[in-house]
Amino acid sequence: MNEMFEWSRVWDAMPTMLDGLVVALQATLIGYVIALVLGLLFALLRRSNNRWVSMPVGFVVEFIRSTPLLVQLFFFFYVLPLIGISVSPLATGAFALGLHYATYTSEVYRSGIDGVPPGQWEAARALNFSRRRTWTAVILPQAIPRVVPALANYVIAMFKDTPQLLAITVVEMLGAAVAIGSETFRYSEPVAAAGLVYLVVALVMAWLARIVERRYGQVRV
Amino acid sequence: MTGEDFITFEGVHKAFGKNVVLDDLSFSVASGERVTLIGPSGSGKTTILRMLMTLTRPDRGTIGVDGDYLYHEKRGDELVPASEAHIRKVRQRITMVFQHFNLFPNMKVLRNVTEAPIHVLGKSKDEAEERGKELLEMVGLGDKLGAHPSQLSGGQQQRVAIARALAVDPDVLLLDEVTSALDPEIAAEVLDVLRDIARSTDTTMLLVTHAMKFARDVSHRVLMFNEGKIIEDGTPEKLFNEPEEERTQDFLRSVIDET
Hints:
The complex is a heterodimer of chains A (221) and B (259).
Chain A: H1 7-46, H2 51-66, H3 69-82, H4 89-114, H5 118-126, H6 131-161, H7 173-184, H8 188-216
Chain B: E1 7-16, E2 19-29, E3 34-38, H1 45-52, E4 60-65, E5 68-69, E6 72-75, E7 78-81, H2 84-91, E8 94-97, H3 109-119, H4 125-138, H5 154-166, E9 172-176, H6 184-200, E10 204-208, H7 212-218, E11 221-226, E12 229-234, H8 236-241, H9 246-254
Parallel strand pairs in B: 3-10, 3-11, 8-9, 9-10
Antiparallel strand pairs in B: 1-2, 1-4, 4-5, 6-7, 11-12
Membrane topology (chain B): Peripheral membrane protein
Protein name (chain B): Amino acid ABC transporter ATP-binding protein, PAAT family (TC 3.A.1.3.-)
Family (chain B): Belongs to the ABC transporter superfamily.
């Protein structure tokens, strides 16, 4: 069939796209919080002097980082119910997304921590700071602002990965577009609509990221 | 423990691979004594300070401070490796001022000085701030309480570092080449501050420095290090004027005296 691309159909699809967008944003935001928190936890645990802690954590992190998100999505979708965890596909998807990206953010945190000059650790030791105080008063306040730009960029990457949640029945924007297409037999317009929304939202996120970077990306006193 | 053996090194050995930095070293420092360690780089003097500050550990031997071993605990008649808690307890009496200042850039000057008194010594914020202001006045920075370290010159940063070290009421003050990163003129200001402190307190001090005149002024004793051993040990007058060892003479001849 040789049909002309009809822009009116693109705009017609927008309301449904916005419903899908809400789902995508929910997954992204929940996943991002998980990635930020879990990533820091991974980074700290991997630095543990106790081999029984640092090695298993390191292995798990590398394993997750080295396998596709899609595989992990399927894994959690099918395995979690088997061990009695019964949550919505959206929750499963957000968790898997967050866990996957936590392995990336943990690398980012690690580089931030490594970037703190050794003299800072030595000064903390000379003043007999506890390990906890060294981290909270000296190291993290210097490590994290350094890596805010990299961390901020991951939210955009995660948002772009939300269509993968389609594989575990989460109807976000691409899913909504495909649904329209399967009813009207015209896929190009709804998918174009989805694409436009992804673009606009990603640009807005990038803009917000730059604001956050400027505000939090300096080591503040 | 008598005042004579306030700090003791017994059989302390440290090697990095084949490079022996401290060679079965034994010496002691009396309470209130100020000892300068001199010698060529790599001779082990900075390692001594770093071991006392628990920044590096000896391979063998014991280090004692005020009657306690730093890295060991007495269990009946035996010496066992110390727990982290024990090390922290002993380390509390020791502090260090570094060549590169190492102020905390995420804290203003006053907070740099009060952070340890509040969170390690348990002083109240008011108490810590009062003492902090006193110390900063004493080092000539009473007007810089709210400044960021990055706004200060090197000499000012080092003086803050000195105030920060004194704020924890140390029994042992370690000074690791504290003026080596400063211009001679600025170094002189810092050394003046340290001279005053030395004269007005009885804190035990170990200094590694190239500032020979300063060492002469404030030290009770000078130890000349070479290849991980102490080759000469005497008063500043003795060591600087009539060194016995040839190596000491060579070294002193080659040192450019800043102040």
